[in-house]
Automatic annotation (TrEMBL), chain A:
Task performed by this protein: Plays a role in vesicular protein sorting.
Name of the molecule in the record: Vacuolar protein sorting-associated protein 35
Membrane topology: Peripheral membrane protein
Record keywords: Cytoplasm, Endosome, Golgi apparatus, Membrane, Protein transport, Transport
Keyword Protein transport among record annotations: yes
Family of the protein in this entry: Belongs to the VPS35 family.
Any Pfam family the entry gives: Vps35
Matching Gene3D superfamilies: Vacuolar protein sorting-associated protein 35, helical subcomplex Vps35-C
InterPro entries to which the protein is assigned, alphabetical: ARM-type_fold, Vps35, Vps35_C
From TrEMBL, chain B:
Keywords: Protein transport, Transport
One Pfam family recorded for the sequence: Metallophos_2
Protein name: Vacuolar protein sorting-associated protein 29
GO terms, biological process: protein transport; retrograde transport, endosome to Golgi
Keyword Transport: yes
Domain Calcineurin-like phosphoesterase: 4-157
InterPro entries: Calcineurin-like_PHP_lpxH, Metallo-depent_PP-like, Phosphodiesterase_MJ0936/Vps29, Vps29
Cited NCBIfam families: yfcE
Length: 797, 191
């Protein structure tokens, strides 16, 4: 009840204050209009008296003051104009200066004095410095913090354009820049003292509110520094020898956290970067002297950021940075802050080093030792503490680790930083993986090649979170999509590991295998294929070369690589992934064939056959597998007769045992190609070809009969047409076993089937047959040898 | 003018990490009306990427494809042309043009798009044209040595199709083109 009354009252008093001003302003206006000096002084004094009010509690007073202040200033401006126009009031300014000091109360008196003082300076009837000094001293009479602040702020405002700066009209004999500087510094010092004192004004429980109010007035104090920065006469020397030391002294001595933080930040923002660079030592040495609660990390971060930008925009100035030893100074300053603020939370400490790292990467990108140093400092911070749980802190660490990756296009540079992996070790498993993905993405984006096994070793250590199960996370807990994405990234990464030198390349492959082999059944299906194809590419490179050079053992030979490949593919059995393994074995078989290694090729075929027999149960998968087997076998020519016979016999056997008859039929006629290779020394066994084709024909017949029985009508003649096409193929190749009459017979067979009683019209197979016949016709019409061949085949009727 | 992109055998991530950057910058969404893919993408991220190039996407199954639901063969009609797609590991001998011609007759298509060998070919025979766009990533192949990344763009206009083949050789994209005209279908032979 009482409080609300209080608020109501204050609102009332505020309104009263404003009304009072308006009332006096009205009369002031009238006085000014009629050039009545006495009346003008009287009413302006009354008007200004509203600022004297002490009816309000401190925390409300400031609010009032602010409102009144803005209104009162309007009037004072009009007054100043009036004062200046001496002809309007007939009083010389020097007399005016005396006159206003008779005003009854001190606050209005001083406001009027400042106003007249401003006119006085403008009149140049006295040196600017004398008047300024007088005013800044007189204002001491007001020790009330808020009133004093606003008063001095008014002083600063009116004096702003009248400082004896270089090139200003107020510069002259005895009026120098130094005087201007001293004036502003003094005003600043006094204002800061008042500002600091504000916090002691109210009861303790309202401390928070007071702080809020203090914050709102801070710009009044900061403005002085801004004014200083605008004084043209201040050069680096003066800044370094006079301005900065004075300002820092006041900052340190005031021992107020709020002021210190704000003012340090002000200095950094307001004065040129060039000055900061040259006064770095002085500026940084103030830091440890500040209150321990000051947020120095933000201050320092701001400083470093400004200097970083400065360096970016002016690369020609980089030698200066070296000259002033900016890095070591900043590094030391940070170290001191860390020592002093032992309880600084990890997130703060790391973000500080992130700023330093950014600075280092921009200013000294070639100094990897600096970069490593910064990382080393972070390792120290993280050591001895449990693995990071705080997400903000981990974000900072990720930012820290990502910075070198972004900077150096070549990932390898980052990999050489000895402290890099040490920082990563302190991340929890989840973040470790995030970071590993960042690293991989960086490599893929920049297309940086990792070209030695040593670097691959370091890299795979860094990304070990993706390669195997780290403690704390088991594969089962992972989101499947994320997991797949991770593993696919690792698979892609492998293609960036390359060296022209076969020896080194093999070492790389072995290093990768060493890391990847313990990935477990979930990861192997992703990583094994990539590695296998990397190895096969190497084999191909070595193909042209001879294994033994002058009898000496060469470490990288196709044979050795095939041994390794065997080991690698074998591990897929733990997944299990028989279909994938089968494909990879076949790839190896073909590669071994190209290297002329018959036993190795045979072994690989054997392995794939064993998998087919024992592990591939799904009928659709079997069909694909058998086609891959036949397709590969058809292409290899390294086998002697015995081996070849064994393998082809097996393949044909598998084909005939497929579940569905059409699949059987197709696989068997595909096998016909095993016995006819179109190379010059390729096998051309016309009889075996015919045997296969006849067998497939029998199967097709059986299929047709089965359909008759089970469905009551005959199936499509598609299979027959396919077989016919195969007959034509070998007929054209010159297989003596396939004659025109054989073909003719087949054509008739198909026609009969199509015209039989239970034939079902099937447009697809009809079209197929038609186009086949059309092809025959086309060949007949070709003339020449082909035409002759086809001559005896009759299509009509 | 209808643009049809034909590509395949990317083998991502087993044999290649990504499409060449120069190809990716050429495959701007919205410019192509149909995409035909012979297979062996191999992962769904590639499928999704291709969908962004053009939503009308036709894929057949390669032996390494993650998604086993892609069909073995596919036929579609674009303008006056019937197109057939098949990865090609099912047609033995691999890459044998006569055997592919048989498949073409079987599918009854004017243009057969097939892959597996990672070698670009465009072969005209009695029943039509067989096109192999090669491997879009230049992936390793047991069949073809020294594979250059390649893909095909077909411009179908009435009875004419211009086949543009883009090949990345030594870091530069080289283009070649082949013209095919479709003759009107002949009358059926009596039988």
């Amino acid at each position: 009840m009482m409080i609300s009354n209080g608020i109501e009252d204050e609102e009332k008093w505020l309104a009263e204050g404003i009304a009072g001003i308006q009332h006096n302003a009205f009369y002031l206006h009238r006085a000014l209009d009629s050039n009545n000096l006495r009346e003008a002084l009287k009413y302006s004094a009354q008007l200004l008296s509203e600022l004297r009010t002490s009816r309000l509690s401190p925390h409300k007073y400031y609010e009032l003051c602010k409102v009144l202040h803005m209104r009162a200033f309007d009037e004072l401006r009009r007054l100043e104009i009036f004062f200046k126009e001496e002809d309007r009031h007939g009083c010389p300014v020097i007399d005016l200066y005396e006159l206003v000091q008779h005003a009854g109360n001190i606050l209005p008196r001083l406001y009027l004095l400042c106003t007249v003082g401003s006119v006085y300076i403008k009149s140049k009837e006295a040196p600017a410095k004398d008047i300024l000094r007088d005013l800044v001293e007189m204002c001491r009479a007001v020790q009330h913090p808020v009133r004093g602040l606003f008063l001095r702020s008014y002083l600063a405002q009116v004096s702003r354009d009248k400082l004896p700066d270089i090139g200003s009209e107020y510069e002259g004999e005895g009026d120098t820049v130094m005087d201007a500087v001293e004036f502003v510094l003094q005003n600043f010092t006094e204002m800061n003292k008042l500002w600091v004192r504000m916090q002691h004004q109210g009861p303790h429980r309202e401390k928070e509110k007071l702080e809020k109010e203090r914050n709102e007035l801070r710009d009044l104090v900061g403005k002085n520094l801004h004014v200083l920065s605008q004084i043209e006469g201040i050069d680096l020397e003066m800044y370094r020898d006079t301005v900065l030391p004075s300002v820092l002294e006041q900052i340190v001595n005031c021992k107020d956290e709020l002021a210190q933080y704000y003012l340090m930040d002000c200095i950094i923002q307001v004065f040129p970067d060039e000055y900061h660079l040259q006064t770095l030592e002085t500026l940084l040495s103030a830091c440890p002297q500040l209150q321990p609660t000051v947020d120095l990390k933000t201050v320092l971060s701001q400083l470093m950021e400004r200097l970083s930008n400065y360096a970016s925009l002016n690369p020609e100035l980089l030698p200066e940075f070296l000259q002033v030893e900016a890095f070591s100074k900043l590094s030391n300053a940070i170290g001191k802050v860390m020592e002093a603020q032992v309880d600084m939370p990890v997130v703060g400490a790391i973000s500080l080093y992130v700023s330093l790292l950014t600075f280092t990467l921009r200013v000294h990108p070639d100094r990897l030792d600096y970069v490593d140093q910064v990382l080393g400092a972070c390792v120290k911070i993280l050591s001895g503490k449990p693995k990071l749980e705080d997400s903000k802190a981990t974000k900072q660490v990720v930012a820290l680790l990502s910075a070198p990756l972004d900077k150096y296009d070549d990932i390898v540079t980052a990999l050489t930083l000895s402290n890099y992996p040490r920082v990563m070790d302190h991340l929890d498993a989840g973040t470790n993986k995030v970071m590993a993905m960042v690293i991989i993405r960086s490599i893929m984006k920049n297309k940086s090649w990792v070209s030695t096994s040593d670097k691959v070793e370091v890299l795979f250590e860094l990304i070990k979170g993706l390669i195997k199960d780290l403690e704390g996370i088991s594969t089962d807990e992972l989101d499947e999509e994320d997991f797949n994405e991770e593993q696919n990234s690792v698979a892609c990464l492998m293609h960036m590991l390359y060296n022209d030198e076969p020896e080194e390349m093999l070492k790389i492959i072995c290093t990768v295998w060493k890391h990847v082999m313990s990935g477990g059944p979930k990861r192997l299906p992703f990583t094994v294929p990539s590695l296998v194809f990397s190895a096969l590419k190497l084999v191909r490179r070595l193909q042209g070369q001879d294994g033994d050079v002058g009898g000496e053992e060469v470490p990288a030979t196709p044979k050795k690589i095939f041994q390794l490949l065997n080991q690698i593919i074998e591990t897929l059995s733990v997944v299990p992934a028989p279909e994938l393994a089968l494909r990879l074995y076949l790839q190896c078989a073909e590669a071994a064939n190209d290297c002329d290694l018959e036993p190795v090729a045979y072994d690989f075929f054997t392995q794939s056959f064993v998998l087919y027999e024992e592990e591939v149960a799904d009928s659709k998968a079997q069909v694909t597998a058998i086609h891959l087997i036949i397709g590969t076998l058809q292409r290899v020519n390294v086998f002697g007769v015995e081996n070849r016979d064994t393998l082809t016999h097996k393949a044909t056997g598998y084909s005939a045992k497929l579940l569905k008859k059409p699949d059987q039929c197709r696989a068997v006629y595909a096998c016909s190609h095993l016995f006819w290779v179109d190379d010059q020394d390729g096998i051309k066994d016309g009889e075996r070809v015919l045997l296969c084709l006849k067998r497939s024909l029998r199967i097709a017949n059986a299929a047709q009969q089965m359909t008759n029985v089970t469905r009551g009508s005959s199936g499509p003649v598609t299979l027959f047409v396919e077989i016919l096409n195969k007959y034509l193929y070998f007929f054209e190749k010159g297989n003596p076993q396939i004659t025109a009459s054989v073909i003719q017979g087949l054509i008739e067979l198909i026609k009969t089937e199509m015209q039989s009683d239970n034939a079902v019209v099937n447009p697809v197979s009809d079209a197929f047959f038609t186009s086949t016949l059309r092809y025959i016709q086309f060949q007949k019409e070709k003339g020449g040898a082909m035409g002759e061949k086809y001559d005896s085949i009759k299509l009509g009727g | 003018m209808v643009l049809v992109l034909a590509l395949g055998d990317l083998h991502i991530p087993h044999r290649a990490p990504d499409l060449p950057a120069k190809f990716k910058s050429m495959l701007v969404p919205g410019k192509i009306q149909h995409v035909i893919c012979t297979g062996n993408l191999c992962i769904k991220e590639v499928h999704e990427y291709l969908k962004t190039v053009c939503p009308d996407l036709h894929i057949t199954r390669g032996e390494y494809d993650e998604d086993s639901r892609y069909p073995d063969t596919k036929t579609l009609t674009i303008g006056q042309f019937k197109l057939g797609v098949c990865h090609g590991h099912q047609v033995i001998p691999w890459g044998d043009l006569d055997s592919l011609a048989m498949l073409q007759r079987q599918l009854d298509v004017d243009i057969l798009v097939t892959g597996h060998t990672h070698q670009f070919t465009a072969y005209k025979h009695e029943a039509g044209v067989v096109i192999n766009p090669g491997s879009a990533t230049g992936a390793f192949s047991s069949i073809t040595y020294d594979v250059n990344p390649s893909f095909v763009l077909m411009d179908i206009d009435g009875l004419r199709v211009v086949v543009y083949v883009y090949e990345l050789i030594d870091g530069e994209v080289k283009v070649d083109k082949i013209d095919f005209k479709k003759t009107t279908t002949p009358t059926n032979l009596p039988h």
